[in-house]
Amino acid sequence: MIPELRDILFLDIETVAITNNFQSLDERLKVQWSRKASFLKRGDDQSDEELFHERAGIYAEFGKIICISVGKLFDHESGELGLKTKAFYGHNEATLLEEFKEMLVKLGDNVKLCAHNGKEFDFPYMCRRMLVNNIALPASLNLAGKKSWQVEHMDTMEMWKFGDYKHYTSLDLLASIFNIASSKSDIDGSKVNSVYYQLGDLEKIKNYCTADVLVLAQLFLKMKSLPLVKDENVITT
């Protein structure tokens, strides 16, 4: 394996609103959400409660992580690249974050995190939710005060920009133009909150999140002009 690939940990997170019942928020948080909602509303007919269910999971102050899926490249016995994936998921956010942190510590300080739009979303979201859950940040996630260009972790969306400042480019769009199999089936990021709270199907969310990690790793390899990982060389643990 090329040395630069050994320490990369590909990851994706799935988040939902902190609660399915807006009315169960304490009064201080309700007030704070109403203030934020005033900037997010697309029309006067949209209530703070409706917007909470639609958008709260995007913000670490009003959302929580229910799944972190990771993937790591390895030398498959076939002589080709392989990918091992693992998911940390559950209803108890603190527990899954502690387990994820334990894995990061074991990987050591050389680990390089890679996510799509990770510098704007995944990395800071994980940091914020760890602090909310009274979990000290591991060295690899201690990003406080750093500018995006000072963060050594990798971001495939940033790689695609090549230094320009164009708008957001989705992982699914890049997978499409590079002819990488999509992770999208009957669920996408916009449906995670309803799948979690209305259907209670955490397993479906975990599978979707893990599929995104495979797409992410394949995209990274494509952007490095390297061969893709074959389906038979993907191991899910």
Question: How would you describe this structure to a colleague?
Answer:
By secondary structure, the chain is an alpha/beta fold. The protein has 2 domains: 3-12 and 65-236, Nucleotidyltransferase, domain 5 (2-Layer Sandwich); 19-61, no CATH class. It is 38% helix and 17% strand. The chain contains 8 helices and 6 strands. It has helices spanning 27-40, 48-55, 93-107, 122-132, 156-161, 171-177, 192-199, 202-223, and strands at 8-17, 63-75, 81-89, 112-115, 154-155, 234-236. A 6-stranded mixed β-sheet has the order 5-4-1-2-3-6, with helices on both faces. Strand 4, helix 4 (122-132) and strand 5 (154-155) form a beta-alpha-beta unit. Helix 6 (171-177) crosses helix 8 (202-223). The protein is globular. The relative contact order is 0.18. The model has no long low-confidence stretch (mean pLDDT 90). One of its GO terms (molecular function) is exonuclease activity. Residues 62-225 form the Predicted 3'-5' exonuclease PolB-like domain. This is 3'-5' exonuclease. Keywords: Exonuclease, Hydrolase, Nuclease.
